[in-house]
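User: Structure tokens for this complex, please. No commentary.
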Amino acid sequence: MPRRQLDYSVYLVTGREFLPAGKDYYESLEESLQGGVTLVQVREKNADTGEFIEVARRTKQICDKYNVPVLINDRIDVHLAVGTAGIHIGQTDCPLPLARTLIGPDAIIGLSVRNVDECKRAIEQSADYIGIGSVWHTSSKDIKGRRCLGPDGTGEILDLLDGTGVKAVAIGGIHLPNLPQLLHGSISPKTSNTLDGVAVISDIVASQRPRESASQLREIVDSFKRARLNLKGQKGVFSIIDAVDQAALDKEYLVKKVEGLMRILEQETPLINQLTNKVVMNDSANVTLAVGASPIMSTNPRDVYDLSPAIGACLINFGTIDDKEGMKVAGRQANVNRKPLIFDPVAVGATSFRRENAAELLAHWQPTIIKGNAAEIGALAESTEVASRGVDAAGSGFKDPAAVVKALARKRAAIIVLTGPTDYISDGDRVYKVSNGSHFLEKITGSGCQAGTLIACFAAASRISYLQNNEPFEDDSQLVQGDMLVAALAGILVYTVASEAAAERSDVKGPGTFRSALIDELYNLTPEVVRHRAKVEIL
Ligand SMILES: Cc1ncc(COP(=O)(O)OP(=O)(O)O)c(N)n1
Ligand SMILES: Cc1nc(C(=O)O)sc1CCOP(=O)(O)O
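Assistant:
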């Protein structure tokens, strides 16, 4: 007979040592169950056996009232003494096959997994579920010397579970503000497998109001699961929001969408916060104004925190990486406030310093759109193709650029924009190819950065368009609202079409005059010109 199925959605791991002063453990437990905790693990690191059994017994008594199963951390004897649903064991605890022999076929066994190899073993040994961790830094356990997996590392492990029946929760540093980031960022790149739930200690146990803490986590997990059910079969990361009939998805449809976004920018003037490099700051602010949006270049951590609710989108361009703390706060708050977050990882492959900083930022927040040239996208995709071929000016640097952007979009759960003489944009499902542009773009500094700025402007417009026109779609768990694939296309198309118009002007004699003409052409660009010139292919 198959073992009973548990609901892993919000998995409370207990920790009496983390209770706020004056809060009783059993009272906190009961409140968290009322908030919607679906599974409880009794974890006692300092109690002797008698005390552990007593705590587990009373915990089970309370959980039984709410029909919530209880598992025991590490101790098979305590599980047997209390008659709980099963155990959770770590890599250095009783080996799983032996534990299975001792506790019988009906009990649940969960196993901690820190990497792909441990996950393979857990599957071979028929674990019921795995606890993947630590996702982020945690103060609830000493994880010194261990690399935090981040959402993407979690997703790599989830890929192995698809079709195995083994369930998965993530653990370590999970709190309400980073939960949507984790759920989306861990969608597995190859199979689109997702977490079955999240395991937390401090977010609930250390709370003065565990009922509210549990219920807020539960709302987000439930909403995410409902959204994934609605999306069955769709692999794109953000196509969800503005899901369109595939038959309607032609160039005509896309250009019409871009035109609509251009009008919204002019009417609504969204504020775009740009943490960008010193070389391009002035031009980035000017192109923002030229398309109708409003620039602000704030980097101070306190300031970006306060600004976040008011902005339409946030751009993080880490050209000179002077303001990492501000970048961390701005990106995290963009996630928390569900604002589009555009990441331009300038020269990320060039030095280990840049690679490490990009990894740190990407573990801290979830970008909506990542824009880069071939070398940058190659570095993020961990591809050696561009480095070994050299970025040739006539191509993208990749043999199959469409496949690269598609795979990276799935890996990072973000829209990927690969810029170059031809631009490629993907959400992991669809790929758009844009062949507009001018050779002058390579002759001015910061053209890629300006493209990133315009993508941020149109992402803000797309969000506004969604809020004006659409029924809310599982808002609790969505990282952003609006069609971000079309937004990325709009940013690229408007920029490259304006560059063509600028290059054709008789007063443009070289890069200097081109630079000014480009701002003028962006300012004067009409939807009709975009329609007329657009060279967009749907691959
Ligand atoms: C759900 C879940 N996942 C992982 C762990 C960690 O277990 P373990 O590796 O045994 O470490 P300790 O909890 O014993 O410190 C867990 N407890 N629960
Ligand atoms: C018990 C535990 N195990 C981890 C692992 O990585 O295996 S992290 C962790 C602590 C989780 O606590 P919090 O939710 O407060 O971060």
